[in-house]
Amino acid sequence: IEGMCASGKTTLSRELSEKYGCTVFHMDDFFLRPEQRTKERLAQIGGNVDYERFWEEVLQPLLKGAPFSYRPYNCHTGKLEEAVWAKPGRWNIIEGAYCLHPYFGDIYDYAFFMDIEKEEQKRRILERNKEELYERFVSEWIPKENAYFKMLCREGRKPLAGLSDMEI
Q1: Is residue 145 within 8 Å of 34, Cβ to Cβ?
Q2: Is residue 158 very low, low, confident or very high in pLDDT (cuts 50, 70, 90)?
């Protein structure tokens, strides 16, 4: 489940998990750690996520279908947390911006893009993250996501193929 920040990706994945017993993995658990945030890496579109670690720790084991562990990154502490054990389910959901990064190739059975109107996005960000983080969303995170979504559209990636640059 790919999409814009505050569009409801996490809420939808939680509801699907509760209703159908899906296993959910969050891209937010794989943002770059402080020591990885080089100027070169952050200049890459989608480079603020540790997609290499996500591939190694989550996607490869999921494709093999065996239980595995991974270490979520905590944005508040700037550190990896203790290992979380996961057992692939009948359905597994990857949710969060950057989950369709070209690094992963075309490995998903289904992909969904969640969009949101700018005013509703602002309301949800303010409600969830308060005023102190809102400016960071507007000046840093939303522009990074928009550049990433535009790149995916240019590549013709499937749920984004129908979006125009004006919609992003």
Answers
A1: no
A2: low
